[in-house]
Every structure is written in C-alpha cells, then in structure tokens.
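User: Predict the full complex structure for these chains.
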Amino acid sequence: MIEFGRILMVEDDPKDVELTLTALADYNLANEVVVTRDGEEALDYLYCRGRFTTRTSNNPAVLLLDLKLPKVDGLEVLQQMKSDEKLRMIPVVVLTSSHEERDMVASYKLGVNAYVVKPVDFHEFVNAIKELGIFWAVINEPPPGSVRKKELN
Amino acid sequence: MTKAEMPSPRVTPMVSLVLRHGLAVVSVAIALWLALLAQSEDINRLQFPPLQLAVAVTAWYAGGGPGALALVLASLAFNYFFIPPLYSPAIKLSDPLFVVFVFFGLMIASFGSRRRRIEQELREARDKLEVEVAERSQQASLLDLTHDTIFVRDMREVITYWNRGAQELYGWGPEEAIGKDAQQLFQTAFPIPIDDIRGELLRTGRWEGELDKTKADGTRVAVASRWSLRRDEHERPVAILETNNDITDRKRAERDIRTLNEDLEKRTNELQVSNQELEAFAYSVSHDLRAPLRHMVGYTELLQKNAPPSLDEKNRRYMTMILESAKRMGNLIDDLLAFSRIGRAETRKTIVSLEQLVKEAVHEVQPEADGRNIAWTIGTLPELYGDRSMLKIALVNLISNAAKFTRMRPQAEIEIGSADGKDNETVVFIRDNGVGFDMKYARKLFGVFQRLHQTEAFEGTGIGLATVQRIIHRHGGRVWAEGLVGTGATFYFSVPQSRKAKS
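Assistant: Here is the predicted structure of the two-chain assembly.
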C-alpha cells in the first residue's frame, strides 16, 4: 500500500477501484492513488491515525469520493472535512453512480468542488476518470501543504 | 260575540264635548220647565229638587265640566225664577235658600263628576288589561307553535311552563312536566359544575352550552341549551327560560367525521411511509443496479481492447452483444427511474407557452434525426396550465417517437397542432406519416413495457408512452391515439384549461 499520493480515492467497490486505476494507468497516475475502502478509513488517512499514523503529513491534491460507503458515508466525510480548518482546502470530487438530485444538492451545499456521475458507458467512464486525474493532480495548483509532483520525483 | 269584535261607534272628542255640555243645557232646561210647571200648579217646595237633579244627572253622566255648567245654569235659573224678588237678574247672595241651593249643587256636581272619573279610569284599566291578556295568550300560543323546545322554571328549578316543542323532544306532556323539579326530571349531566352555570346566569343574564339529558322513554339526548334569566321589576331573579335543540345527530356526525379523519390520517401516514420506501427503493436501484452494469461494460471493453488480433469475428460479436445488452439494461433502469419519479414528484403548475415548449422539445429530438429529411409543420399553439418540466418530458417522448417511427420514410412529415376540446380542455396532437399501428392494439400503447414493434426494427424500452400517460393523468387530462398500419399515427393528449391560461 502506498503511504502517500496525490490522489486519495474513497471507493468500496473493488471493481470500480480496478477500473479506475486501469483508466488512470494510461497517464501514469495509477501509482499516485491511495485507495481507502470506506469513510472511516478515509478520515483515518486524512487525520494520520489508525494504520496511517506514520504517513507523511502532506494532504492529497484531490479526493475522489464515492457517496454510498460502509460505516461513514461520503456526505459525512465531506461534511467533516469542510468543517475542519486544515482539511477544508483539499479539493473534493464526488464520483458516484447516483443521479439523485438531492445527493447533488447536498454535496454542493457542503462545498464540494465537483460532482461527477459515473457514466455507464466504459469509454465515457475512462475519459471522465482521466480528465479528472489530469485536471486535479496535474493541471490544478493544489493548496499549500499538499503532495506535489516534484517532491515525488 | 266578544267585546273586541263588537262594532263600537267612535265619537270624536270634540263632538263628545259638545254633546256633554248640551246635556247640561238640556237637563237644566227640562228641570226648569218642571219647576215652573209645579209653581204654576201651586205646588210649593218642588222647585228645588228638579234643578238639583239636573245638576246630578249632568255630573253623573257628562263629568265635571258639564256638571259645573249645569250648576251655574241651574243656580242662575233658581235665582231668577224662585228667589224673591222674583224675575230680577241680580244675584241674591243674602238669601239663605240660594246659598243652600248652590252649596247642594256643588256637592252633587263634585261627587257625580268624581264618580264618573273613577269609573272612566276603571274602564281604561280594564281595557288595557284585556289587551294585555290577549297579547299574552297570543304569545303563549306562538311559543306553543314553534318546534323548538322551550320551557320555564322558577329559581327553585320547578317547571312552570312547558311548550309543545318540549313535549315533542322529551315525551312528557305539560301536565306531567309542570310542577316537577327540572334537573331531577331530566337527570341532566352538566359539563361544568351547575353552580358555575348559575353564577354566570346571575351575572350576565344568560348561559349557553351542551347538555346531556334523559327523555321520558329513558334514552339520552344531547342538546344545545340556552338559558335566559327573567327578573321582576325589583331586579330580583324570578325565572329561567331554557330553549333546547336536539344535537344528538350532529354529535354523532361529528364523531363519525372525526373517526373518518383519523382513518384518513392513518392512511395518509401509511401512504407516506410506503412512498418513502419506494423512494429509498428507487434510490437504491439507481445506485446499486448501475454499478454492476458499469463493471460488465468496463471489463468487456477491457477484454475487447486486450484481445489478441487473432480473436475470430464470432467471439468479437459475442463481446459486442454483451455490451449492447448492458447498455439496454442501463436505458431501462434510467427510464424506469424517470417513470417512477413522475409518479412521486409534486406537480408545480404554472402557465406554460406550448409553442416555446414544442420548440425546445423538437430541438432536443433533432440530433436523433440528424441528416434526415423531416418536414415539420407546427401550428399556432396556445398556453397551457401545467408543470413545465413534466409537460416537456411528455412532448419530447411523443416527438421523439414520431421521429423514430418515420425513419424509413424518405420524406418524413411531422405535424404538431392543437384544438379546443370539449369541456374547457386543450387538445394537442402529434401526427406523423410513419409506420403507424393497428387500431386493435391502441389500448396497449400506453402500458408499461408494451411494445408493438420488434426491438431490431425500432429500439426502445416500452416506457415512453406510459410516462406520457402518467404525466397527462397527473394533469387531469387524457391520452389517446389513432393510427393505420403503413400510413402513420396521431397521438393526442388533452389538458384542462385554467381560466388564467385562456387566451
């Protein structure tokens, strides 16, 4: 397991994880992804606790967040992050299967930076993931204290 | 014949005054004639009584004024004719006989007139009393006429009056009720202590409320009761008048309504719960059914990508079939979710420009018909009263169908128009020259998953028209269709006009 990376992914479905990583592999971004499998683990990572006590304290450049998660769901993770002075600057992209308008409204109300519905069509899905990865991990200038590309090199 | 009905000749006060004074003159004249007659017959001492009698008669029958006139006339006559020196007009006050005459006359006139006055007063009092009695008995019989229950009791609760309405409601006749203690008779159940009621009655003069009482047959009756306090001229409370209205039926109806309302509320809650369950179900379908589909597609595409070039055409086709099926499944889920959302969502009705809506819908459908030759005919369209986004979904579905089923026509024709229907509704139609349908299947068109064509010929989930029907039904309108195989189809829907939307 990679201890730090530019992309923190919170996704409980292993197939979605695999397909996302495959999509990102084309741009050599796959090894920059840290995967957590539920909301609690994601918060553990962000707060450097549990099995992440020893990780470097830099924040990820972007968080890809599923909404339907075991234990602590995506909206709760989002709410905790946005109410924490140290974590609120981390860009959060909700990546979900849900078309439900109330999820979208709730996410934007909590201050999400982007809301993406996972396309059923694989090409679209791959394209969406790639564009997200490139934009947030490469093009976008992350807030201070984030993991940067040159540090990895 | 009663007195009131007897025709009584009315004499005006003026005529009566003249008649009464005439009586004075006439009676004195007759008395004088008698006195002179007696004198001429040499009967002495008979001059005095007739004149006094004339004064008495006048005062008796005509009152004080005429009595005084008679006295003056009689005195003058007596003085002139009978007091020496005879036939001298001078008043002979020194003659004791004259003084006695005047004194006597005064006494008689004053007694007579006083008696008459008393008699007159008595007569007036009697007449007044008679009128009052007539009025009272008329009022009492009026109270008896009403169907309302009215009875009176004194301050010791003893019933003193009992009308016919009371007899009808409670079953006791007046002879049974009058004289009884009211509360013992009725076994009244008071909602508040009776002392409070009496307190209010004495303070304000009235009280009203609902009481439970017992009838003669033992059944209980709920009445709306009004009490009014009657006081005598010294402001002492003397009686309580009570009116009752039977409200047993009303109470029962109120109870029934309450029960019905409770039932309704319970059912509404149940509906709400099941609606919430449905929503949770739809949410879960939207989220959980889509994920495995995405995976199927994802892995199949990875397989396609990674497959060696040597893979034969047949196996490549299998992979394509998997992908097509997965996509179709995805469309089905989307359409079903949209369909269920329309059933659950609240309609937000406003005045909607149908013309604008059709324009937007055609624009949305345009990409499906890209590169095709379609002649659009769009008539003048009115304003509708309805939910804009729902109506648009319905129009997009219908127009998209028209575009789909005219696909094989080199020159497709689609007409959209409207007409006033019956009963204040607007009818909108979408006509095409496409494949049409057999009218014997017309009823099946709007059912969920009902399709009249094979999937290879025309793609679709069979939910579109069901969605249209649901939207129009939620607007209180109707949907129907006419078609002929190979010629085309016309789909109609109607929406009730609101008064505001009429142009």
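The interface with chain A takes residues 283, 286-288, 290-291, 293-295, 297-302, 326-327, 330, 334, 337 of chain B (CB under 8 Å).
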